[in-house]
Amino acid sequence: MPAKEIVWFIHRGDVQGEDGKPMWRDRGEEEGFLIQERQVGNMHLKHRVVLAPLTRFRVNEAHVPNPIVKEHYAQRSSEPGTLIITEAALISHQAGGYAYVPGIWNDEQVAKWKEVTDAVHANGSYIYLQLWAIGRTGVPGQLGYEPDFPYDYVSASNISMDPDEPQKPRPLTKDEIKEYSQWFATAATNAVERAGFDGVEIHGANGYLLDQFFQDVSNDRTDEYGGSVENRARFPLEVVDAVVKAVGPERTAIRLSPWNFFQGMRMKDPRPTFRYFVEELKKAHPSFSYLHLVEPRVDAVEIRDDVPKDENNDFIREVWTQEGNARWFISAGGHDRELAIRTVEEKGGLAAFGRAFIANPDLPYRLKCDIPLNKGDRTTYYLPGGTGPEGYTDYPFAHTQDLLLLYDARNGIVTSQLLLILNEKKDQVLRGSSVGNMHLQHRVVLAPLTRNRADEAHVPSPIVKEYYAQRASVPGTLLVTEATLISHEAGGYAHVPGIWSDEQVASWKEITDAVHANGSYIYLQLWALGRTAVPGTQGYEPNFPYDHVSASNISMDPDDPKKPRPLTKDEIKEYLQWYATAATNAVERAGFDGVEIHGANGYLLNQFLQDVSNDRSDEYGGSVENRVRFPLEVVDAVVKAVGPERAAFRIRMRMKDPRPTYRYFVEELKKAHPRLSYLHLVEPRVDAIENRENVPMEESNDFLREVWTQDGNARWFISAGGYDRDSAIRMVEQRGGLAAFGRSFLANPDLPHRLKHDLPLNKGNRNTYYLPGSDSPEGYTDYPFASKQ
């Protein structure tokens, strides 16, 4: 029996045992309430699972959704007949006060939303836009920052969310209230008539402007919009009337949160106000699409487990459905599968899912088939202005995850239930990420490893192609090559590769082609040795000897009588050109996805950065600012040659207190090149080629991670720390970023696959790590793949 059929049997619960009964209970008995088809407004839904509106900030400064928003909603509409409710979208500039949230008032916004709705409809699903006016919850400073602003900080009354806040909102005038009703109507028209939405949901919940009018804790007006229940409900009802007039009742809905404490809300008894509102709504618009209710257990963005029994939305449901008409409501209550089934079974309606839908683009399918859910990563819920897939479109679908099915061919019975290979912690390491111009399928990186498999002309041996192709065998893997000399003059080791000659470039091109054929990515590490070079090798090189140079005339060994010569300022400029040319050769001619500048491990750039090797008295030595000058100039030259998304930098620190120097370097790097592909950090536990087990707690790279990521932008870093599987999982879980593996990747060409499935690792043979000039597979391409063991 094909595996596909086995999956179908397990999901449907149709496989029978010897007694003729299903081996697994048909989940339809339980979740039938969730998967029943329903007509809601103008939509024919295939189930009752709804995507709740979720602010995600993947929008530009002009409040236009970024291109990746289309993919996000398309993914979550992949199960036909799903209702999607978008994140809240501002009805006008004046109604705002948050950065990086979408709008629906101009042509550019409408055009981008049209792409989103087209993608959702192509999947046979439906999408409503949530209409938003912020009021007092806006950030006053943001209002002043917006183009064509400042606009006033407004609300129903001059009551702040925080009683101690000195800045009070200004109460809207009656003329302004009428203007807001028109903005809601225009936004609805833009959404339905122009952007192609199936309808709109008016945001009347969570402490935003309409909620501020509803509740007496935020509305102490004395005119017809405040005081009595009828007056406080007036503006929301007028907004509904205006929207219904614009697009019709079957395309209009509203969201309410009577019991929510979020943003300074929650009046003492919300029942009279919201009962009256719903009664009037029902009378005025009996064919209204739906009512969306936030349950009392949802408080702000947390879930309450201590809700009193008398706090519930049943009074609203009773009013809304009491004549037996098919009026629909959606319940949003921090549902898991069992709670949603129970809610729909006991109370009816539809069930909105938020965080679970973030992490599971195929959530209706998973709930239907009772497939375990992916766990969401809270650190990626909000990435303001983000354009990458991290935590947004990179959560896996169930059908793309590794499923283990055990089948007994003797009697045709499936003998083991569906087993997911991945657990939550592995998922952190194996989750895809967008880094620079690459879409990685996991966070396992091949660290740069010198192997000495180049000939005397610094051309990679033919077997190097097979070596990298093997380690690219899991698609979406990032490989960082062994360090590669930028020029003859920058060298000083035999049998290491270069990137300055046509023959070298041609050999590397064969390697990048092989890596790309496997769907993976490869960066070349750019290398200048400085004082670490072997003087004898420099004299041996063709067209040499070249000088033994460094930042200063300080040897690695104080007792070494041969001192390096300090580079002149003209030679420093020459090195900049060599770096730029090497980067161009790598990316434009050899086909690399990018280059990593080697600024670690005591090589030339590291010699300039650190005071133990740099005692210059010119603009390249002395102060922190001077010592970082040459490395920053190198980055500038490389970025100018190939662009920031294809440039990266590797760091390792080892002077008495490296923090001031490296903090300044990374701050300047971030300012100059905010879109640099990544920063590669060698952890303090890596000392030379051994791992230290007694690293003082204060020695860590966390201060660099903080600088690199502190403004919330999706800047990536790689951590190289002599990891095994457990320490890599722990590092990624605690610090984020990518994990570079060296020796374990050396001995396990399919390392990401082995980590994913928790398979035993091959042990490396240290005797074959370095075989200068060898073209033999021994210790290089002869380590077995798991599939062959």
UniProtKB/TrEMBL annotation:
It holds the Pfam family Oxidored_FMN. Gene3D superfamilies: Aldolase class I. One of its GO terms (molecular function) is FMN binding. Transmembrane segments: none annotated. Residues 39-374, 435-762 form the NADH:flavin oxidoreductase/NADH oxidase N-terminal domain. InterPro entries: Aldolase_TIM, OxRdtase_FMN_N, Oye-like. This is NADH:flavin oxidoreductase/NADH oxidase N-terminal domain-containing protein. It comes from Collybiopsis confluens.
